[in-house]
Amino acid sequence: MHKELSDLINRNVSGANAVAYLTADAKKFDSSITVETSHIYKVVEFLKTNKTTSFNSLHCISGVDYTDYMEVCYMLTNYDPSAVRNLTLKVRVTDRVNAAIDSVVGQFVSADFLEREVYDMFGIKFNNHPDMRRILCPDDWEGFPLRKDYVAQKDYNGMTVYPDNKMNMEDREFIVRQNMIKKAQAEKAQ
Amino acid sequence: MQDGVVLTTLDEFLNWGRKNSLWPMTFGLACCAIEMMATGAAKYDLERFGCGAFMATPRRADLMIVAGTVTLKMATRVKVLYEQMAEPKYVISMGSCANKGGPYWQYGYHVLKGVDEVVPVDVYVPGCPPRPEALIEGVMTLQKKIANERLLRNKWVKHA
Amino acid sequence: MQTRWDVGEPHKPTINTSTEQLKSDLLTLNMGPQHPATHGVLRIEIWTDSEIVAHAIPHIGYLHRCMEKHCENLDFRGVIPFVDRLDYLASMNMEWTYAMTIEKMLGTEVPRRAELLRILTCELQRIASHLMAFGTYAIDLGAFSPFLYAFDYREKILRLFEEVSGARLLYNYIWIGGLWNDWSPEQISRVTAFCDDMEEEAKKYHELLSMNKIFIARTAHVGVMSVQDCIDFGATGPILRGAGMKWDLRKNEPYSLYSEFDFDVPVGTGEVGEPGDCWNRYIVRMREVVESIKIIRQVIEKLEPGSIMGKVPKVMKLPEGEVYFRSECPRGELAFHLVTKQDSKEPFRLKVRSPCFTHTSMLPRVAPGQMIADFVATVGSIDIVLGEIDR
């Protein structure tokens, strides 16, 4: 299904450059389609309005940070009692400093909150979004928590995030031990 | 019953009144709030201990049960709510999260590690979440604490 | 029929331009984070013109507990207690969905008895969750006694869970590959007895609240969400079914053994009010309780002795790949997006698609033109759990 769908996208949306990623074991894993980052709005518009696909709902937007690039996954679905169809549509964001892609709020209203969450957690800005603010963390929060290189801030609004006097001796020892194990593993790997 | 004279100290009389009419604030944060509701509901019935009149506003309440995880975004609001309550006021910290951060300690970048960072706490109730019996025990401990209070030694009387 | 205060577009205040002093402005009200009707720490910024809501903006994140960050640092089994604390009113369903996500990746065969018992516990949990929704919704609208009735029966379910799992609220009971503990025949017989009681009790609830004149006045034709709105916003569960669409993943995309069971999917038909209003969302929940009882009875018939734990590796390492798995929880469709790396003991990324999150985003759509009291009824009817929204 993904192969035909990516061909269909390529034929109808010029420059979309859709590539289907097919898993070896379809029972266990999901396949997906990756498209050009700049064309996401057009592809989503095509998938929604087109009669043969007609994905009428955006179920979820999820971000993944692979350290050298970030991925935004759009889970599209179809509320059709006769045949349920799901599709994972992906775009890649390589710029970590000024990460920005087009918003799909124009097509799916549900993207409003979901895109704000991706922005909050990964720092990917969505152009043309009506209300691009943080959603879970406070507005004056620093950093983007779910990035792999995130370091939590020391204090916020006069409150210490990790107060040293509150830590158990056992916990402290445990963390020290964990760090030693990790260090040893890293050395072994080298 | 005949008219009679009961002799007591002012401290004891005030404390007797206070400890048997604790009005908690309807203030649920997370999972523990459900257990707090269960404590107030039919089976466990917190009202037996003179502590069941859940007030929806801090201005009418004199007990704040911090039930659940306090996040950094919420912490300032918890403090404001505490300051809005009239003296004398008491705080029960319910559950591991409110005590010390609970399971959200290590990577909890947005979790306040214990509500005592922002408000003074009288009684800590452990558990994740504590059973209703544990909360009742916590309330009774607080009542014992109130029974031993001395009016003139209270800081809010001294500062008045 | 139209809503009672149907004013169409977001209400604009009347401004008297001839006299500068007589200006009418929108008043900003803050509902929450501490408010008895928001079911937790939701904050809604309401702009009102006198008593009519012109605009409502939900502010969430007051319970953001960094659950997704924790999951990236724990092994696959260690995630289960954190998954519990997502939707603390339906922990069993959360655990089950997570377990199924991992099992799909591992390709684990779960024994038949374990699957059946999972359905049994999760349907019991669905009843408990809907009872809670029933009780708190009644409190929101000013009726206190339904709360006590609902909690009485909810405690009975919790009692059963406590015996079998050891905890009242957050169970850590459904494990990857099976269950932690088996139900004894004596416990199963008590479930049967409970089902009989509950069926009678559900009828009582209809007399108590569903057909109450005041309750109908407060909920019928209030907060109407049409099917098209629901699909646009990605709403699922009782919200979508209350709007009149027959959509239930247990029927439409059967997972586990649900294809073997015979049950109906209740939808809002509009015998009171109209499809998509608060009353219909409420009645869908109450009818689902009866359907769940039906499923539980069939499970008990099918139960056979056997193993309750499938074969899972001791040190769990998943192959590289990703999976998006969804299931039907009491509040709607829950989904996990799991990304793993080769030979890694912990998830690389675990994204929770929460039903309440999308339902909260619908509030700005339904709020304009409502009275403030009706808005409270609308917020109550979507039955939000903040642990799941903020994660």
Explain this structure.
- Chain A has two domains: 135 residues, Beta Polymerase, domain 2 (2-Layer Sandwich); 40 residues.
- In chain A, strand 4 and strand 5 form a beta hairpin.
- The longest helix of chain A is centred in the last third of the chain and has 21 residues.
- In chain A, 36% of the residues are buried.
- Chain A contains four helices and nine strands.
- Chain A has 190 residues and is of the alpha/beta class.
- Chain B is mostly helical.
- In chain B, 36% of the residues lie in helices and 8% in strands.
- In chain B, strands 1-2-3 form a three-stranded parallel β-sheet.
- In chain B, strand 2, helix 4 and strand 3 form a beta-alpha-beta unit.
- The relative contact order of chain B is 0.18.
- Chain C has 391 residues and is α+β, with helices and mostly antiparallel strands.
- In chain C, 45% of the residues lie in helices and 12% in strands.
- Chain C contains 15 helices and eight strands.
- The N terminus of chain C is likely disordered.
- Chains in contact: A-B, A-C, B-C.
- The interface between A and C is large, with 38 and 42 residues.
